[in-house]
Amino acid sequence: MGNVTRPDQPDDRALLREHLLKTRIAGDVATPREGNLANYRKMVQKDPGYQFGLTLKDWTFAETLEMMARLCGVSPDPRHLRGADTIDVDLTLDALDAMGARIGIAARRRETVLLATGHPDTLMGVYRAVEDALRAAGCVVLAPAAGWSYPVTTPFGPQIREIVYTSGVAALGTDGTLRHTHDPHPMRAVLRELRDAATGHWPDLVVADHGWAGAAGEAGIETVGFADSNDPALFAGQAEGKIAVTVPLDDGIHPDHYRPLIAYLLDRAGLTG
């Protein structure tokens, strides 16, 4: 799992709380209010890029803002239109507790697990640490549909994206470079291959984000994941009962800053020491 520093003081929650606020993973985050509100409107308008593969009910903008204030901790004030916004650090910690508890159950039951990220540049270390801990506990970590590809249109012209695995963590890549994505199509391809395979493997748990998580939750798989304050769909999915846990955090912070979060998550799962 690399050089993960465990917060082993008497109150590790307080220590992590301080760290999350200091690094702005939670608290006063860098994600601007304008971007948050714009993306909430896109979800309400059912823009496919902001549904994350979920078939959501008809949310109003007011309902979405209230839900994001309740589950993520953004400002509930509809008059707050620009500037800074927030993620409630205690909501982050509560969700990490819940995610850790579910990962711990997976470890004790030796469940079959699937991990995937649309933020490989920043969050890959989190997923790899979870993968290593679950493998060590005897879990089966699936890696189906490697190499499955499809064309996308980018500002630089058409490109091919393919599913690639870093150990057992799925992501999208182009020409050897891992890419950010909201797209649910890769997870749908993964699940199609699993359905069509003769092995009988099907995930008991998915740990993911963005469209990887949304498509898994839509397929009825128990899913826990991470989401930023400008990505309302997974929070809406949690509110609708399709996503088990959504951890609110800034998903664009330097990877090293997530190390104490990793240690806390694995500690809550009972997978350290």
Automatic annotation (TrEMBL):
InterPro entries to which the protein is assigned, alphabetical: Phosphatase_SCO2771
Name of the protein this chain belongs to: Phosphatase
Organism: Nocardia sputorum
